[in-house]
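Late entry, evening session. Most of the bench is empty. Finally got around to the prediction I had been postponing all week. Sequence below, unchanged from the version circulated by S.P.
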Amino acid sequence: MGRDPKVHHTSVVAVAAIALLAAACGSTSTSTTNTTAPTTAAPAPATTAGPAPTTTAASAPTTTAATTTTVTPPTTVLVPPAPANLTHGGEAVGVYLKVIEESESSGNFFEDFADVTAAVEAMGYFAGFGDLGCDGGAQEGLSLPEGDYLGSAVYFSTVEDAETFATIYGEEIVGIATVRTGCLD
């Protein structure tokens, strides 16, 4: 018996529609997988009385072709935000890269924060570091327990800019907090 022409025509139209949709949305990759699954009948159960068991011939293996189309969505390019212009007593949004308890400091801030400052300088930013108490609201904004802390941060004008920077930075951060900057005079 031959193929039903209506079914074949519908399959061709469906594949063409998928290809058009994929071309309109971006790059695609198509792969075809052929699988062969043999089908056999289960043997009749054995009985102690009655007629002799019969066997059923196995049917011919069937082949199914599956086509998969993957559409890759367009990527978003993040634009590095401009750092904030800090003023004594002004408001800024800090991305805190590293915070340590003052008692853990080596006494040399350059050594304590060299790892994070080098990473952000390679990105074209400057990371300030020093007494976290100079950033009014940082300790609360970062949910740190009572204590004396040193920290390193990059400052931005908006929370959105700070979040964009944190995404581009790609490393783990302590957190983001809106602060009143001090110790700049």
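Two things to note before I forget:
The first helix runs from residue 5 to 25.
Helices lie at 5-25, 109-112, 114-122, 138-141, 159-169.
Will write this up properly tomorrow.
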